[in-house]
Structures are given as structure tokens and as C-alpha cells.
């Protein structure tokens, strides 16, 4: 069997980098009198030449960028913290001339504790001083400060050869598993997928203990095994050497589990990383020589022997020509790779996981008692939501999508696959789907405490959420939205964040739900337009309601409204009935401005509140609902404002935006757009003659 070289993927590093030095020698020409090899040997020789080519180690050329994540809040260049970041990066870069043992280095810069910056770098265990130094210098002097994360409070960047990160919190000895990067490499499943995956997991787990307990100064292990006689598997694991063995093991287990979850060949975590390929991607990898049919049949045959001179004469030009082709491909890939940090939805690798997400219709019918009314827990514009119990006792929530949806089967599968890969503790998890007999069903984890509005807007239940729980809920929602905006594989705009779309688990932890209206943006896309406005009155930003413009700042506006509702237990959409102000936002601003922020708090929890935390949340909520988009914070900045140890000084909010509704209420026109498992319904309003109506699939 001929083993082909790996396919190139726009976000996957290739196994070979070549010098682009114009002074290097040109490839040798094939002599005119080159001996002709008998046809019998041609396949074997070509196969052998390709393996020799693939096993050539990487040269120390420019590092290959893989992925980066950074706190999007930009520090003012004139602040002490910004100066300390520059000093830290210079310090990390300077260590490349006297590289520490193991390719790992940690340091900090601190004038005072409030402005301390901590940083470290880790080079891949096979890198020599030159390769490691070039990678760290590129990260510290060029890519992080100028290209990817200029002025960010904290950042991490991964290359093929190294990782560098800094933060305002101590890093040394702390196991960190977020943020996470997932990269799909070459086509790894060359044979049977089940066999390949089984061998991969066995191999990864077999070297985990060795990696975690490595006492050589490097927590780094590699291994090559044979999947079949013709298919190899190369595996790599690495932790930062400062971790204790138990922490390293825990980090690696998480990373290994994510390989199958995201159909990736590489998982990047701040404290560890794992990778596998079907080609040798690290320096010093052993060469895999497959057992060819001819060799297996007659290994010692003396017939048709070819001299070593003839073999070399054939191998040399083949390798040179293949090298030139790959070098050109590398140049093309490197120019494009920085724009592809995530796997495109619908790629071949993605659809390999669809089978594991699919439920059969009979199973879901049995679980929900044939979608009986007794099992229905919500009804909305998309259809009903039913509680179900699987045969193993697991509770699920099944959303039965309306058959009137114009969404095609392939588009439905694309969205299911993407949403299933959004894994965050503050997002409702999609477990799978069913597409059969005209039914489109989504299977979610079951969240027992229903939705947030079930508590904060019910006078009998408001007291069950004291201030500590509410503050925790606000922070959890912010983390979930930050993940959608910045840390997921593509940027997600929710477009309908509201109290009924925040579910509460058994411990009252919030989980943002209902991505039915969500818009998926490219990594660099920041704004979109639509002629069909969908959402809920009272939560929509003015620019979206009146002009159809939406962005992450539209979600920030909705988050601000939600924060003020959580504090006060009053609905923004119905506050006009109170007589206190034209809407909840204006009332909140007036109370904040007059220093009466405690009077804004729900009376049932007022005695248990922290005055400073209430003030902090009101300040944040009012900044989020500013009319000008630039005056609203990002979700990353919102997280900083919620941090009680943060030393940032946010601007003073202006009076919030307000726009009047132009329709009379009509009970007969109510039509709910509800969350995955909530029991509330939304009222479609017409805002400045724009209809907020039932949603279509995007």
C-alpha cells in the first residue's frame, strides 16, 4: 500500500518547514543518462522516498502560528500595567539568548501588587535553543504586542514550536485549562476510524503517567505506534514543568477527552497540550517503514536486485522535487493560516462526529411518552419542549421544532454540529438530534430549576434568590456570553438574551440557552445587518430594533437590561406601568445618579445585599445600555468590572437610550418565543413599525 503525504489544512501546521534563503543551492537536475529502474520496483521506491521525505526534521525557520486568545479589554498605554506588560515581554524575549533548561521560563514584573504582571513561555520538548528562541522572540516582540493581543490584560499564544502567556494573576504552579484551542490537522483516519481512535486513546493514556511524572526538567513525551501494517500514529504530550504530577495528569486527561469531542488532532490548553498525527511532526520522530506486499511475499529474494547507486540516484531527485512542492505549499498555508483558527462548520472532519450525536426517533418517543402534553415544559415560536427520561435514567429536554420551518436537513445538521461543540458551564449543552419521519428534534441536557424569570418576576419566589445567588448568576451569564463572543470557535451573536433564556441548574448556576436566533460570525466579523428583526421587546438595543444592525454590542445591551432586572426584580418591558419613570433603565439611572442605589434593589433581598456590589452591578448595567455602541463595554470588560479585586475605573454612564413602542397591547396577539426549557412567553411588539415576530431558521 502506498502511503500518501498528508493533506494540507488551512489551520494545520505541516510536518516540514524549509529555508527560504535565496542563497541556498538550487535543486539538482536529473542527469540525462539516469538509469531506468525496472517497473517491478517503482512503487516500492516511490513509497520509500516519500517516507524518507516525511521524516526530515523541521528546520529552524519562522515559527508556525497555531492559535491565540486574549482579554479584549485594552489597557491604556500610559498606565503602569501597560508599561509592566512591555517590560515583562522584553524580559521573556531576553531569556532566549540564555535559554533555561527544559525550554521553560517564568517571571513577573511588579511595582505594586495591583499592577503585577506574570508571564511564562514553554517550548516544545524537541526544540533546540535556536528554534525555541526564535519562537519566543516572535511571540514576545511581534505577534502578541502588535498583531493579536495589543494592550490586552492577559493573553496566550500557541505556535507549533512554543507557547507564551501573561496575566495579572500568578501563573507558576497553577493548572489552567481555559482558554482552549482545537486544531484539525491532516487526514488522520486513513484506515478504519474506530480502530484508529482506539489506538490513539490507548497510546495517549499509556504515556500519560510518564509525562506527568517526568523528572528530567521536561514534562514531555512522544511515541510512535503502528495502527496497521501501513498506517502509523505519532503522539505527543506536554505539560508546563511547574505543575505537580496530579495537576499535569488532570490537565492531560481533559485535553485527551477533547480530541474526540472536537474531532481535532490537537488540543491546546495553557498548562498542557496533546497532539497526534499519521506523519512524524516532531524532531527526532522514528521513521515508519510499512511492510509492502512485495517485501512480505519474498523478503530475501535475490531476483531483480537494484544497486545502492541506482536507488540513491532515483531517491534524490524525487525528494528534491517533493521538497520544492511542499515548500511552496507551506508559503501559501502560512499566509492564510492566521485567518482560520477554527474549523469551518460542515467540514469533512466535523461530520465524522454526527453519528455520535444522533438519536433514533423511537428512543425519544419512549422518553417523552410520545411527546405527551403531561411532559411538555414549554411552548414557543419554534415549537414545544418536552421533558424526557432515557432508559439509563438520564433526564433530557427535547425541543420539537415546528414542521413549518424552511430549514433544510443539511443546514439543520450543520447547526446541530456547531452548537453541540459549544461547551461551557454557563451554556445549556446540546446532547444531540433526531431527523426522521419529518421530525426535527433537538436533545438538550435537562436543567431542573427552569428559567431565571420564573424566580425574579414571581413575588412568591423572589426571596429564594438572595443577593449572593444573584451576583453569582450575573457573573455566570457574563462568562457564558464572553465565551460566545470571544472564546468559541467562531463569534456567536445570541440576539435574544433575556431572563427566560437563562436556565438555572440544581445549584442555581445560570446556563444561557436558546441559540435559535443566534448569528454565527467569522472570527474577524464584528457587525451584521438584517431586514428581519427578531427578539424580545425591552431587551433589544436601539440600533437593532430600529435599523436591523446587530453586533456583540447588541448582546451587551441585552445583558445590561438583564442585570438591572436581576437587581430590581422588575421587568423592563412592563415598567411603564409603575409610574416611577418611562422605563426601568431610566429609573435605574436616576436612582444611581441620586446615590439611592439600594432603593433600586428588590425589597425582599435588600437587607442581605452588599452595597458595593450592588453599586458595581448598577454601574455595569447602565454602561451596557448606553445608546452609543462605543460607550458600551465588551463582555471581557464587563467581567473585569464584576471582579471585586479589579482596580479599573469605568466611565460615568449617561442617561440610557429609550425608544417608545407604537402598538397597543393585545392579548390575542401574544405569541411566545421561549427558551429551550423555560415556561415563560414573550410578547411580540412593533417598535417604530418594525415587527418582532416568530423566528425563522437563519
How does this structure look, described?
This protein is of the alpha+beta class and 698 residues long. The protein has 4 domains: 71-167, Gnk2 domain, C-X8-C-X2-C motif (Killer Toxin P4, Chain A, 2-Layer Sandwich); 186-291, 2-Layer Sandwich (Killer Toxin P4, Chain A), CATH 3.30.430; 351-445, 2-Layer Sandwich (Phosphorylase Kinase, domain 1); 453-664, Transferase(Phosphotransferase) domain 1 (Transferase(Phosphotransferase), domain 1), CATH 1.10.510. The chain contains 18 helices and 23 strands. Helix 2 (80-94) runs antiparallel to helix 3 (129-148) and helix 4 packs antiparallel against helix 5. The protein is globular, with a radius of gyration of 29 Å.
Any guess at the CATH architecture of the largest domain?
Orthogonal Bundle
Could you tell me the strand content as a percent range?
A: 15-25%
CATH superfamily membership of the largest domain? Transferase(Phosphotransferase) domain 1
Query: What would the principal axes of the Cα set say about the shape?
Result: globular
- What's the number of domains? 4
Q: List the uncertain runs.
A: 1-60, 294-306, 334-352, 520-526, 528-533, 659-676, 678-698
Biggest sheet overview: 5 strands, antiparallel
Work out the radius of gyration: 29 Å
SS-based class: alpha+beta
Q: What percent of the residues sit in helical stretches (DSSP H or I)?
A: 25-40%
Amino acid at each position: 500500500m502506498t502511503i500518501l503525504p498528508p493533506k494540507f489544512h488551512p489551520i494545520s501546521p505541516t510536518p516540514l518547514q524549509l529555508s527560504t534563503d535565496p542563497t541556498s543551492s538550487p535543486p539538482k537536475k536529473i542527469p540525462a543518462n539516469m538509469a531506468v529502474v525496472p517497473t517491478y520496483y517503482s512503487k516500492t521506491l516511490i513509497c520509500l522516498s516519500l517516507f524518507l521525505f516525511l521524516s526530515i526534521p523541521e528546520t529552524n525557520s519562522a515559527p508556525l502560528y497555531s492559535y491565540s486568545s486574549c482579554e479584549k479589554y485594552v489597557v491604556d498605554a500610559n498606565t503602569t500595567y501597560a508599561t509592566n506588560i512591555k517590560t515583562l515581554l522584553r524580559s521573556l524575549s531576553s531569556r532566549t539568548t540564555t535559554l533555561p533548561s527544559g525550554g521553560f521560563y517564568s517571571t513577573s514584573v511588579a511595582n505594586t501588587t495591583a499592577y503585577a504582571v506574570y508571564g511564562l513561555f514553554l517550548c516544545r520538548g524537541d526544540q533546540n535553543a535556536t528554534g525555541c528562541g526564535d519562537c519566543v522572540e516572535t511571540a514576545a516582540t511581534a505577534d502578541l504586542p502588535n498583531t493579536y493581543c495589543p494592550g490586552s490584560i492577559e493573553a496566550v499564544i500557541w505556535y507549533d514550536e512554543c507557547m507564551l502567556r501573561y496575566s495579572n494573576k500568578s501563573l507558576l504552579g497553577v493548572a489552567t485549562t481555559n482558554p482552549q484551542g482545537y486544531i484539525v490537522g491532516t487526514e488522520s483516519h486513513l484506515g478504519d476510524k474506530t480502530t484508529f481512535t482506539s489506538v490513539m486513546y490507548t497510546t495517549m493514556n499509556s504515556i500519560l503517567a510518564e509525562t506527568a511524572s517526568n523528572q528530567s526538567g521536561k514534562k514531555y513525551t512522544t511515541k510512535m505506534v503502528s495502527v496497521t501494517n501501513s498506517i502509523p500514529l505519532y503522539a505527543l504530550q506536554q505539560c508546563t514543568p511547574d505543575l505537580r504530577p496530579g495537576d499535569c495528569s488532570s490537565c492531560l486527561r481533559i485535553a485527551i477527552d477533547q480530541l474526540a469531542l472536537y474531532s481535532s488532532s490537537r488540543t491546546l490548553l495553557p498548562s498542557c497540550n496533546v497532539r497526534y498525527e499519521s506523519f512524524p511532526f516532531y524532531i527526532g520522530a522514528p521513521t515508519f517503514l510499512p511492510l509492502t506486499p512485495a517485501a512480505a511475499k519474498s523478503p530475501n529474494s535475490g531476483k531483480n536486485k537494484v544497486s545502492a547507486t541506482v536507488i540513491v540516484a532515483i531517491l534524490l531527485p524525487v525528494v528534491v522535487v517533493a521538497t520544492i512542492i511542499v515548500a511552496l505549499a507551506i508559503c501559501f498555508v502560512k499566509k492564510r493560516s492566521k485567518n482560520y483558527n477554527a474549523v469551518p462548520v460542515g467540514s469533512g472532519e466535523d461530520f465524522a462526529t454526527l453519528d455520535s450525536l444522533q438519536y433514533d426517533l423511537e428512543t425519544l418517543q419512549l422518553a417523552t411518552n410520545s411527546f405527551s402534553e403531561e411532559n411538555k415544559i414549554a411552548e414557543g415560536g419554534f415549537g414545544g419542549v418536552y421533558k424526557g427520561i432515557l432508559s439509563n435514567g438520564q433526564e433530557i429536554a427535547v425541543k420539537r421544532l415546528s414542521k413549518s420551518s424552511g430549514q433544510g436537513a443539511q443546514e439543520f445538521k450543520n447547526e446541530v454540529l456547531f452548537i453541540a461543540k459549544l461547551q461551557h458551564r454557563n451554556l445549556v449543552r446540546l446532547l444531540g438530534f433526531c431527523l426522521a419521519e419529518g421530525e426535527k428534534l433537538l436533545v438538550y441536557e435537562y436543567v431542573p430549576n427552569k428559567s431565571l424569570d420564573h424566580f425574579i418576576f414571581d413575588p412568591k419566589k423572589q426571596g429564594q434568590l438572595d443577593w449572593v445567588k444573584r451576583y453569582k448568576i450575573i457573573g455566570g451569564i457574563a462568562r457564558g456570553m464572553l465565551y460566545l463572543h470571544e472564546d468559541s470557535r467562531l463569534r456567536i451573536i445570541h440576539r435574544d438574551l433575556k431572563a427566560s433564556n437563562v436556565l438555572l441548574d440544581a445549584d442555581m448556576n445560570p446556563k444561557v440557552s436558546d441559540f435559535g436566533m443566534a448569528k454565527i460570525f467569522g472570527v474577524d466579523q464584528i457587525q451584521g445587518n438584517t431586514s428581519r428583526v427578531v427578539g424580545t421587546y425591552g431587551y433589544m438595543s436601539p440600533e437593532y430594533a430600529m435599523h436591523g444592525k446587530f453586533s456583540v454590542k447588541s448582546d451587551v445591551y441585552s445583558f445590561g437590561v438583564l442585570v438591572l432586572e436581576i437587581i430590581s426584580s422588575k421587568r423592563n418591558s412592563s415598567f411603564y406601568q409603575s409610574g416611577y419613570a418611562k422605563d426601568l433603565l431610566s429609573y435605574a439611572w436616576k436612582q444611581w445618579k441620586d446615590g439611592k442605589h439600594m432603593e433600586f434593589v428588590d425589597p425582599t433581598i435588600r437587607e442581605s445585599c452588599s452595597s458595593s456590589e450592588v453599586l458595581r452591578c448598577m454601574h455595569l448595567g447602565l454602561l451596557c445600555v448606553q445608546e452609543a455602541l462605543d460607550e458600551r463595554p465588551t463582555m471581557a470588560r464587563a467581567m473585569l468590572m464584576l471582579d471585586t479585586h479589579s482596580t479599573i475605573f469605568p466611565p460615568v454612564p449617561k442617561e440610557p437610550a429609550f425608544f417608545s413602542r407604537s402598538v397597543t397591547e393585545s392579548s390575542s396577539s401574544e405569541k411566545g418565543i421561549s427558551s429551550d426549557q423555560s415556561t415563560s412567553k414573550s410578547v411580540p411588539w412593533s417598535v417604530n413599525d418594525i415587527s418582532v415576530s416568530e423566528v425563522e431558521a437563519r
